[in-house]
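User: Predict the complex.
Assistant: Input components as received:
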Amino acid sequence: MTFSLGFAVLIVKMIVVLVVLLLMAAYMVLLERKLLGWFQLRPGPNRVGPFGLLQPIADGMKMLLKEDLIPRHADRFLFLVAPALLALTTLLAFAVVPFGPDLSIGGVTIPQVISDLNVGMLMVLALSSIGVYGVALGGWASNSKFSLLGAIRGAAMMISYELPLSLALVPVVMLSHSFSMVDIVNAQAGYPFLLIQPLAFALFFVSAMAESKRIPFDLPEAENEIMAGFHTEYSGMRFALFFVGEYVNMVLLGSLVAVFFLGGWQGPFLPPIVWFLIKVMLTPIFLIWTRASLPRLRYDQLMHLCWKALTPLALINIVITGAVMAW
Amino acid sequence: MSNNPAAAVKSFLRGAKGIADAYLVVLKHLFRKKLTEPYPEFKRELPERTRARIVLTRTPSGDERCVACYLCSGACPVNCISMQSAEREDGRRHASWFRINFARCIYCGLCEEACPTLAIQLTPDFEFAKDDILKFVYEKEDLLINGGGKHPDYDFYAHCGVAFGAKKGGHAGERPPVDVKTNLP
């Protein structure tokens, strides 16, 4: 494969992934509103288009046309950059997610992943940590008490859930002998890691719920305590960017759960990309179900859970996995 | 957290059951009938005395009932009614212009209670949303209706008023003057 052809294929892949992701994020909002409605005995949005299917487009138009307010005492530069930072880091993480096995078109092999980094998993974890800067800086730059409280909570939450999030993935790396997401999926050809690592799955899932900043861990936003938390002062398209970040993050967590524990695109009968989409959608649907079911945790309860329960369990799990593998 | 492992496990299981129950209850609601009635397709029957859009009514003979006494605009707690009084050639008073700003109106009905001629009345018609706030300023032409509203037969000037031609005892519904001498014991 020549360099120019490879470059063209890369650009096409990036465009496809970006468009599909943004559309998914938009329709994730609709799915969430529909499901929440049904859980609460309401029909959900059903006026714009058949079954409300054009609602995300109407919402997008509304967001674009709204006034973009910047508070007078805000730190202008950081205020403008923060939402982009959150959306950017979440979108970037998809560069290493494998969507299917290698395709061969006309004798040319095209891997269905934008970049098969040999440290793919580390990159995803690093990006998720940088994403918190979007929250912390957005809250700080707004120069508002509620936003600052949200930002502090976001930062405090991050140092709590990042540790079990990363530690829960160590057994996966031990089993697949690789940090590369492609290799991790290939290592699950026989059976998904969920079957041999249920504890790691549970730990990762709970930490991922905290990572997504949604109920029961939506402390940085907490509408009824601190209004909208870190994005109180945001409006228009910048507010929408925070939302895109949040919903793309849901899809990202779905992909990570699918790649690390559910066997990625592997599955019988159906084409790999269909399997991957089914597995990716499981996590967001569960997150929405959770939002309808559970109350919000207090800030100290979250830290208690992460530091005193999840982290020790993750460490024990690593030791047990190592012992079993060595024996 | 308890130091006793058995108690800790028990407490963990109880907590897990509590969370699982919450999920189950929510899941059950997915299959229940929706409570929402979609609005434009389903219209609830309104209570009889629902107060909404204000109208100005007419007498049975088709005249304006309003005599521009300013009582409604004085009673209005949000000052949404304004008018200019004038006198017709036959001495009958009326409003040369009459304006209600529905963007401000709170539909309290105090204007209706204040009106001595039963001219201003509230109707149950609440569906008049607009895309521009200025369109909520209703002029006299928009407010006047053909008919007497809640009291179709009532006519203020047939009962009282000045210089309207009728002699003493000649107004509609007025009983003839009492001969006081017949009242004597």
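The two ends of chain A are 44 Å apart (CA to CA).
Let me know if you want any component modeled separately.
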